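Bug #77: duplicate submission created two jobs. Keeping one. Sequence:
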Amino acid sequence: MSAPDTACTGLLGGTFNPVHLGHLALAREARKAFGLDEVWLIPCAVPPHKTTTDLAPDADRLAMLRLATEGDPALRVSDIEMHLPPPSWTLRTLDALRAAHPGRRFAFIIGGDTLTQLHTWHEPLQVLERARFVTLARVGYGRPPADAIRLPPPWPGRLLADYREAALPDVSSSGVRERIRRGEPIDGLVPDAVIRYIGEKGLYR
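Kept job's structure:
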């Protein structure tokens, strides 16, 4: 059954290296805060803003995401960026999604730290024209002033109108990887099915 005309699909991109409970909380809380019908998690193949040296293979990151979202019909996994030319520019991704799903409305989910960095993205003004951008920051992060968003009007005002805060877990993929390297447990930080997968595949050792 097709989504109603009023529906809007959330998009959450990242390396998901590995996916952790913070990612899942961000997706679920953004869905509630912005009235999204579902959220698609999109792992990037070649991140343009990160120099991760221990990026797990695409197939493993996809498998972990699918394990993490299994049983939640509001969360889906899209491998679209893994079929596009590198690097994984958001503009290219949004154009491909709009071509594949004509008529569907998209909301791109970002965190508070990303909001003030949008001007560094590839063709940021074109990106902002392609989808609604919604920001969900951790409670206490602090709503940035309009002049901290280094984009021309009307974008600072529009972006801040879609700014919310939520109680999100304080966990990072880099922190999870470091704990694995040190042989420390990652229970409570990563879904149990993903913990088992990491152990079976020997990832991040």
